[in-house]
Design a protein that fits this description.
CATH class: Alpha Beta
Radius of gyration: 20 Å
Bound molecules: ligand PBG
Number of strands: 12
Number of domains: 1
Order of helices and strands: HEEEHEHEEEHEHEHHEHEHHEH
Strand order of the largest sheet: 1-4-5-8-9-10-11-12
Helix content: 25-40%
CATH superfamily: Aldolase class I
CATH topology: TIM Barrel
Largest sheet: 8 strands, parallel, barrel
C-alpha cells in the first residue's frame, strides 16, 4: 500500500488513536531507583546530580517507602563510606554490618515486598578507587573474584533479592552464582553488568560515590565504547555462567547495544540510565534549553523502545509522578 491510498497520518490524528497504536508503553513497573547510603543521620546533596542526595540508612528507608507508594518495584543500593572505612582491597564491601547491608535489612523490614538489589563492587570501598584488588598497577581478576564471593554472601545474609556484580571481572557471574549456591542461596537472583563500558558518563556518580580512581583508568576491565560484537560475547558468557538479568550500561549512547542484546538473548534486559545522562538533562533543563518533563519521559521511552525491560534511573521517582499525573501509561 502506498500514498495516496495509505496515509500514516490517519492514525496520528487524535490522542486516543495515538494511544491505541503506541508501541512502547512506559510504566513504573520497569523502574529501579538507585540510592546512595552514607554514614550518619544527615542527607548530603550531590551537586552534579540535582535532586539526588546521599542519605542515611533511615533516609534510604524513606526513599524505599516512597518508591513503593509510587509503584516503583525496586531499588539498588550503593554505599558511600567514610575514608576511614576504605582499604586497599575494599574489605568494607563485605562487612556484615556495612552501610548497604544495614540499609537492606531496614528496607526489607519496612517494605518487605519491594525488591532490593545490591551492587557488588569495590570502588566505593578501596582507597585507590578501582573495582578490585590491585597488583602491579592493574586490577587482579582472580584475587578480586574471591572477595566478590564474600560480598555476595554478606548481601545474601542481609536479605537482598538480587546481587548485581558490577566490576567487569572475567568469570564474575559464575563465581557469584557458585558462592551463593554453596551456602543455600540458590533463590537469590543475579543481575549481571554484562556490557559495561569505560564511559565518561559515570563522572557525576564518581563524585556521588567518591570513587574517582587515584591512578590509571578502567579500560582494562570495562569495555571499549567502540565495540558492539564484544557486548554479545560478554552477554553470552554471563548467560552461560548463570545470570538471571543482563545489563547494558550506560544506556543512551548504547541504545544499539541494547537492541542487539534484545535480539540475541531471551533473558530480561536492564539498562542503566547513568549519572552523566541524568546530569546532562538536568543541566539543559535548568538553562531552559529543553522541556524537563518531556525530556525525562522521552529518554526513558527510548530506552524501553530499544529493548530494555527495566531501567535503573535516578529519574524513577519523578518519572513515576509524571506518569501518575498523565493518568495513562504511556
Ligand atoms: C562501579 C560503578 C559505576 C557506576 C555504578 N557503579 C561506574 C564506574 O564508576 O566505573 C556508575 C553509575 C552511574 O554513573 O550512574 N562500581
Amino acid at each position: 500500500m502506498q500514498f495516496p491510498e495509505y496515509r500514516p497520518r490517519r492514525l496520528r490524528r487524535t490522542e486516543s488513536l495515538r494511544r491505541l497504536v503506541r508501541e512502547t508503553r512506559l510504566s513504573t513497573d520497569g523502574f529501579i531507583y538507585p540510592i546512595f547510603v552514607r554514614p550518619g543521620n544527615e542527607p548530603k546533596p550531590i551537586a552534579s546530580m540535582p535532586g539526588q542526595s546521599q542519605v542515611s540508612v533511615d533516609g534510604a528507608v524513606k526513599l524505599a517507602e516512597e518508591c513503593w507508594k509510587l509503584g516503583v518495584p525496586a531499588v539498588i543500593l550503593f554505599g558511600v563510606p567514610d575514608d576511614a572505612q576504605k582499604d586497599a582491597v575494599g574489605s568494607y564491601a563485605w562487612n556484615e554490618d556495612g552501610l548497604v547491608q544495614r540499609a537492606c535489612r531496614a528496607i526489607k523490614k519496612a517494605v518487605p515486598e519491594l525488591t532490593v538489589m545490591l551492587d557488588a563492587c569495590f570502588d566505593e570501598y578501596t582507597t585507590h578507587g578501582h573495582c578490585g584488588v590491585v597488583t602491579d598497577g592493574d586490577v587482579d581478576n582472580d584475587a578480586t573474584l574471591e572477595n566478590l564471593g564474600r560480598v555476595a554472601l554478606s548481601f545474601a545474609h542481609a536479605g537482598c533479592d538480587v546481587v548485581a556484580p558490577s566490576g567487569m571481572m572475567d568469570g564474575f557471574v559464575g563465581y557469584t552464582r557458585e558462592s551463593l549456591d554453596e551456602e543455600g542461596f540458590e533463590n537469590i537472583a543475579i543481575m549481571a553488568y554484562s556490557a559495561k563500558y569505560a564511559s565518561c558518563f559515570y563522572g557525576p556518580f564518581r563524585e556521588a560515590a567518591g570513587t574517582a580512581s587515584q591512578f590509571g583508568h578502567r579500560k582494562t576491565y570495562q569495555m571499549d565504547p567502540a565495540n558492539g560484537h564484544e557486548a554479545i560475547r560478554e552477554v553470552d558468557l554471563d548467560v552461560g555462567e548463570g545470570a538471571d538479568i543482563i545489563m547494558v550500561k550506560p544506556a543512551l549512547a548504547y541504545l544499539d547495544v541494547i537492541a542487539r542484546v534484545h535480539d540475541e538473548v531471551d533473558l530480561p534486559i536492564a539498562a542503566y540510565n547513568v549519572s552523566g545522562e541524568y546530569a546532562m538533562l538536568k543541566a539543559a533543563a535548568e538553562r531552559g534549553w529543553i522541556d524537563h518533563d518531556r525530556a525525562v519521559l522521552e529518554t526513558l521511552t527510548s530506552i524501553r523502545r530499544a529493548g530494555a525491560d527495566m531501567i535503573l534511573t535516578y529519574h524513577a521517582l519523578e518519572a513515576a509522578r509524571l506518569l501518575a499525573k498523565a493518568g495513562t501509561a504511556r
